[in-house]
Amino acid sequence: MTINIQIDDDVREATALEIKDIKSRQAEGQAEQTEAKAKQLVKSAAQAKLAALGLTVEDLTALGL
What we know:
Elements: E1 4-7, E2 10-13, H1 16-52, H2 57-62
């Protein structure tokens, strides 16, 4: 797999080290997105449980949820 990179007006093929860095950053970004989605799901589940107990949106806001 070849990856071209551009620095200023110069476009060239990325070195093996640059490709490794690019892939590492992509994986890191994906992991961060997955973690953020998981946190949102946990928060939503907690809000749903509290709502099932009869708490209102105002109550949840007061609790910081």
